[in-house]
Specification:
There is one protein chain. It contains 4 helices and 8 strands; from the N terminus they run E-E-E-E-H-H-E-E-H-H-E-E. The chain is of the alpha+beta class. It folds into 2 domains: 100 residues, Phosphorylase Kinase, domain 1 (2-Layer Sandwich); 55 residues, no CATH class. The strands form 2 sheets. It has a 6-stranded antiparallel β-sheet with strand order 1-5-6-4-3-2. Strands 7-8 form a two-stranded antiparallel ribbon. The protein is globular, with a radius of gyration of 16 Å. The chain starts with a strand and ends in a 6-residue tail after the last strand.
Length: 170
């Protein structure tokens, strides 16, 4: 039986938090892979909204001593909501895996754009600095210290806004 800790369900969505599972989503394609984390683009079946889904194998997390960090990350992210963070929308687990469903941002990370020698006008750079400052201030107000502000942890959305990912919560 899947259990869930869900955010983002509105009264207009059919179903409840308890019925949220991998079957609630259509997996569209893989977009990333780490040592024990896989990321794919998914579409929620009941509202057709697109998300990114991170999933981690419980056994691999146990072997790497990461269960505590994953649970803590979910606990903290479930309390946060900011326009310049990659926000947690839903989380749930099944017998083998833990799932985190987050905002889908398809603009790529800032590191990729810098390596492509993309020219950023001064106004865009100023806007990015304001967005970064806003996100960092929000995290500070929530007693969270951001340790690794670097281009690969800043994702762009379709409108060109920056969003922090990977909060590295310990």
């Amino acid at each position: 039986m899947a259990t869930s800790e869900a955010r983002g369900l509105s009264p207009h969505d059919s179903g409840t938090k308890k019925d949220l599972s991998l079957d609630s989503f259509e997996v569209l394609r893989a977009i990333g892979k780490g040592s024990f984390v896989k990321v794919c683009i998914v579409q929620m079946k009941r509202n057709k909204k697109m998300y990114a889904m991170k999933y981690m194998n419980k056994e691999q997390c146990l072997n790497k001593g990461a269960i505590r960090n994953v649970v803590r990350e979910v606990e903290i992210l479930s309390k946060l909501d900011h326009p310049f963070l990659v926000n947690l929308c839903f989380s749930f687990q099944d017998a083998e895996d833990m799932f985190m469903v987050v905002d889908l941002l398809l603009g790529g990370d800032l590191r990729y754009h810098l390596l492509q020698s993309v020219y950023f006008p001064k106004e865009d750079i100023r806007l990015y600095l304001r967005e970064i400052a806003s996100a960092l201030d929000y995290l500070r107000l929530n007693s969270i210290v951001r340790r690794d502000v670097k281009p690969e942890n800043l994702l762009l959305d379709a409108e060109g806004k920056l969003h922090f990912q990977r909060l590295l919560i310990f």
